[in-house]
Design brief:
With 224 residues, the protein is an alpha/beta fold. Helix content is 44%, strand content 15%. The chain is built from 8 helices and 5 strands; from the N terminus they run E-H-E-H-H-E-H-E-H-E-H-H-H. Helix 4 links the parallel strand 3 and strand 4. The protein binds flavin mononucleotide. Flavin mononucleotide binds next to helix 1. Flavin mononucleotide is lined by residues 14, 16, 21-23, 74-78, 107-110, 115, 143-144.
Length: 224
């Protein structure tokens, strides 16, 4: 592929600050690999960009200039965070470069990757409504086990994720869709389910204690 069709845009859909989100860690890994393959890139944090006219304009310009858009987001209430939905509305009204493509990376807190299914369908509909070619999505469960650190620094647990992202990059740079094998690897549990829930429960209890509500965890204020 010549350099004309080689511009990738990472849209970070997590409302967390730069350096803090799993979405950014996953998306940045892909962008770095694509840069190493000769692609030019840009990264935009959606929440921050929507806070000013300049930011919104830069978001839309970034989208219009890109051959491939990668949206990396956390699952919120079985859907996408509100700023991402807003960005989708803005983008679909104005979109996009001819033959531009959309790939997404979803990550969720629940252990099973399948919780991301509805959000994936929303992204696919967005691509359709915006005239973007849908080239597939990767969905990850157990996002709570990860952090905003660079992916390579997050230990052996992320080996499957790295393999999945590498396969996706190989396909995307060749103009292909995200391969099934990458989707399968990404959806594999990072650690056993019981371990994830045990660690998660411990974390929630510790947070409750820190906020002085440890004894209120069993409260049911709306129960009749
Ligand atoms: C407001 C809110 C809603 C969430 N809803 C879900 C959900 O419906 N299902 C789920 O599995 N995780 C849910 N989560 C957990 C996030 O998807 C999870 O923590 C994710 O790893 C955060 O990614 P990030 O670091 O990129 O923001 C929710 C988190 C928040 C803050």
């Amino acid at each position: 592929m010549n350099s004309e069709g080689n511009r990738v845009l990472l849209l970070v859909g997590s409302p967390k600050a730069p350096g803090k989100s799993v979405s950014e860690a996953l998306g940045s890994y892909v962008i770095e690999k694509m840069e190493a393959r000769g692609w030019s890139s840009e990264s935009i944090f959606i929440r921050a960009s929507l806070q000013s006219d300049e930011g919104r304009a830069a978001l839309l310009e970034g989208v219009k200039a890109s051959d491939l858009i990668i949206l990396s987001f956390p699952l919120y209430v079985d859907s996408l965070p509100a700023p991402v939905i807003r960005a989708m509305e803005l983008i679909s009204a104005l979109c996009c470069k001819k033959n531009a493509r959309l790939a997404v990376i979803a990550n969720s807190g629940f252990p099973e990757a399948q919780h991301n299914k509805v959000a994936m369908s929303i992204c696919q509909r967005f691509a359709h409504a915006s005239g973007l070619e849908w080239v597939g999505g990767l969905a990850l469960g157990m996002g709570g086990a990860l952090s905003g650190q660079r992916l390579e620094e997050q230990g052996g647990m992320v080996g499957k994720i790295i393999k999945a992202l590498d396969l996706a990059v190989d396909a995307l740079v060749n103009g292909e869709s995200v391969p099934d094998e990458a989707i399968r690897l990404m959806a594999k549990p990072l650690i056993p389910g019981w371990m994830y829930t045990t660690i998660g429960n411990f974390g929630w209890r510790r947070e409750a204690k820190r906020h002085g509500v440890r004894k209120k965890l069993g409260d049911r204020p709306y129960q009749r």
